[in-house]
Sequence to fold (308 residues):
Amino acid sequence: MRDVDERQKKRTNGRFQVLRAGLRVLSAVAPPLAEQLAMNLFYRPQRRRLPPEVPGAEPHAWRVKTRAGDLAVWDYGRGPTVLLVHGWSGAAGQWSPFIGPLLRAGHNAIALDLPAHGLSDGDRTNLQEIVHAIVDTAARVAPIRAVVAHSLGATATTLALAQGLRAERAVLIAPAARDVQGYVHAFAQQLGLPPAREPGLVARMRRKFGDLDRFDARKAAARLSTPALVFHDVDDAQVPFAEGESLARAWPGARLTALRGRGHNRPLTDPDVVREALTFITTGPPAAPSAENEALLLQDIQEQREAG
Fold:
């Protein structure tokens, strides 16, 4: 199985390098076409078909109709509902390590595949559709004790709460929190798209969605009163720690727990993260941060000052 995964990874990397080279050529000879192709790619996640698997527990698998299409959903157990929201190019099965502890604590754990992800409908999606998917799914399973969300799913959850999602608690893991221009810049760098093409991408998005400031999770967070716990690794290579830090700072009363050595995805399988999140969901806002956590935050701030 590992050999198969390695071959698949090599094929994917090979295709990506060809795509990067093609985009650079297209940017030189036909800039509008390069921008349109890049925009199409911007909305196409990598699909991972990974349903949840929890030893000794059988899920109820079903589908929910939302404004973003039909979505695959799995729920486990009875009791207060906890909605689990994965990130971009993720899948519901990433929450398997959370589901068992939630069941044992007497909760109903519900994980969904977002639009164009996993076993859900679609091949392209965007942040507004993901927000609609969260709000519409939550309406079907309300009341919601807590939402636990990862990466761009945490961004969308923040926006969903500002747009009417009702939940008693929010746990956000490695949340992305920047303006749309920041997302476009990071994506363009990944694709090897010349910086001169970025304004064209942003202009196309404005024509499609209108005001892009409404997708800034930091601005949405400032209007929220939902108790929130934010986890972020100080060395996260995919979503910088500064983004989780800025979101927690903007969110009234939110608590930031700094991690180290977990990266971007490993917090989803880390027993300490699961335990702290479950305590927050079950008993309310966490106590003041530990001395170790305070030290990590101070060290990160100092490193950022020295780098700046």
In short: The chain has eleven helices and eight strands. Strands lie at 60-66, 69-76, 81-85, 108-112, 144-150, 169-173, 228-233, 255-259.
